[in-house]
Amino acid sequence: MIIEGKNPVKEALNSAATIEKLYCLKTNDPQLGYVATLAKQKNIKVILADKELLDKLSPTKRHQGVLAVSTDFVYCTVSDILAVAKQKNEPHFIVILDGVEDPHNLGAIIRSCEGAGVHGIIIGKHRAAGVTDAVVKVSSGAVQHMLIAKVTNINDIIRELKNNFISIYAADMSGTPMYGADMRGDIAFIIGSEGSGIHALTAKLADKIISIPARGKINSLNASAACGIIVYEAVRQRVS
Q1: Domain 2-70 has what CATH class?
Q2: Structural domain boundaries in the chain
Q3: What is the pLDDT of residue 22?
Q4: Which of 42-46, 68-72, 220-224, 226-230 is predicted most confidently?
Q5: 164 vs 126, higher pLDDT
Q6: How far apart are CA 54 and CA 61, in angstroms?
Q7: In the CATH hierarchy, which fold is given to the domain comprising 78-239?
């Protein structure tokens, strides 16, 4: 996996990610110098490169003068996510993605969730985006600090969470306004795909359908925007 950009690479170096080597532009840029020094302190091979080589290695051509070669992203289990909440002595705070396929949406969702203190994200193995170089880039390195479980059947996992006394809230325009929902307890939010939203059977498994009040002419948001609004409403309730 290629991790590129100053902040994503720095976050990767400060996380448990396994970095094999780092390519850094020959320059006097102090930010790039800091990243290279950090890599050397961790005994990671640093290769000084010109822009031509970095452009060749970069999937997006937006490397900002540095990229790291990392082992593939390691997904966790749902049990790992449940264990984090227990270790922190906090009510479960989970996000379930039902068919989110756009890597940019997934990266933005990971960034919002990490900032909000979500314990973990659950995604499907099929017809859904996984953690790729593009996702790492969009997340600005947040992916290195977020537990992500990839499962075969989302609905089976929802049933498992309900058996663990975790309330399931599905986000859909047809639901009741989210400001009336109690988000302070053990909870998992379902966010649907960019096009078709949440699958009908999945929505039926939810304990509550919630919506984001809209006042404009366009009454729907993309998945990452909707997820950010909902998880930070949960944060507001939990800290107030």
Answers
A1: alpha beta
A2: 2-70, 78-239
A3: 94
A4: 226-230
A5: 164
A6: 8
A7: Alpha/beta knot (3.40.1280)
**Whether residue 219 has pLDDT greater than 70:** no
Q: Compute the distance between CA of residue 153 and CA of residue 49 in angstroms, rounded to an integer.
A: 44
| Number of neighbouring beta carbons within 10 Å of residue 93 | 26
Tokens linked to 94: 């989970």
The reported pTM is: 0.81
What is the per-residue pLDDT for 132? Answer: 86
Q: In three state form, how does the secondary structure of the chain look?
A: CEEECHHHHHHHHCCCCCEEEEEEECCCCHHHHHHHHHHHHCCCEEEEECHHHHHHHCCCCCCCCEEEEECCCCCECHHHHHHHHHHHCCCCEEEEEECCCCHHHHHHHHHHHHHHCCCEEEEECCCCCCCCHHHHHHCCCHHHHCCEEEECCHHHHHHHHHHCCCEEEEEEEEEEEHHHCCCCCCEEEEEEECCCECCHHHHHHCCEEEECCCCCCCCCCCHHHHHHHHHHHHHHHHHC
- Taking alpha carbons only, the member of 201, 122, 209 closest to residue 169 is 209
Query: Is the Cβ–Cβ distance between 32 and 66 less than 8 Å?
Result: yes
Weakest-pLDDT range from 14-28, 71-85, 88-102, 164-178: 14-28
In angstroms, the CA 4 to CA 58 distance is 7
pLDDT digit string, tens, across residues 34-47: 999 999 998 899 99
> In whole angstroms, what is the distance from residue 110 CA to residue 106 CA?
6
